[in-house]
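Annex B. Sample input.
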Amino acid sequence: MRRSSLLLVALLLAPATALAQAPDSLVTARNADGTLRMRLNADGGLLVGGAYDGDATGVGIPAVGVGTRMIWYPGKAAFRAGNVQSGIRNDDLIGTTNGTDWDAANVGNYSVAFGQSTRASGDYSFAAGYVSVASQQSAFAMGENNTASGAASVALGYHAHTNARQGSFVFADRSSVDYLRAGVNHSANWRVAGGFRIFTASNLSTGVTLQSGASVSNWGQSNAVISTSIGAYLSTGGVWTNASDVRRKRDFVPVSGEDVLARLRSLPLSTWTYKVDPAGVRHMGPMAQDFRRAYGLGNDSTTIGTVDADGVALAAAQALEVRTRTQAEQIAALKAQNTTLQHRLEALEARSPVSAGVPWGVGLLALAGLVGGFLSGRRRVSA
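Annex B, continued. Sample output.
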């Protein structure tokens, strides 16, 4: 903005010798010493010159107070066009305007202001719209009731305020009458109730949407605060949902659950703290290098995709379920055998005339055989 203002000044202060090839003039105005101050060309081109001196006293401004006018103020190389009124409500700045927005004290050097009761009081500042204010060096305010009060800050939209935070950017939509204020220096602040939509293709087919969850994203996701064109999103409940549509996948290969378990047994697991975490914050899991070495999944050896970690966990769970089901079937068979042997033992005892010797011996032998068979079955299952 500063460069643009300086360029405007340079053009306006160009010496008469640079105008030799200009179209024929209809009107010219010069100082007593012959210095060109204004020229209206036959083709409608207009040049207005002047001398910049900072006008410390403020006496060089062409007009002050309320009214509708266009002003070139050469003493400060500043330009104004529009209307100034008093009594316009501005809750943030001064309650209501007092009609002095374009007086010399409120005109910054090399500044520009357009619209109604706008104020560009900072040097190299720009204000446009309705009751917007750019009060610091290189500040930019445009829209309705916006204030850029930090150096090199930008306020756009409706009731946006940079809050004296330098280098900040504030855009506020018209969903609320409250002011949106920058909280820290060098920050970007947005109020967009309908969602912040970033497109990375000219046909709007790819990108990211930040939204409240009350509206549907460009890609059909609802109840999301972050949604993407590839299908993944963060729900309003805080759940990250990965894209897993079969139509997005290729090169399918079956998984051996037992192989996954075997690799999992050798995968080192530990608790640890990220270097950027505060003291006392702990996490648990494998190192990306070990995970990559064990399973060969993901893009590289420094990250672990959540979909890959979930896949390993599910494959391991399936393999354990098969083991559990097989063991349950074997245990059920052993229980049936035990019941049969118990019944046979009871029958033998009932038929035997001997009081305790032989039947109890037979029973002990049968029980020993049953226990041995059960343990042997367990060892086979574990293997």
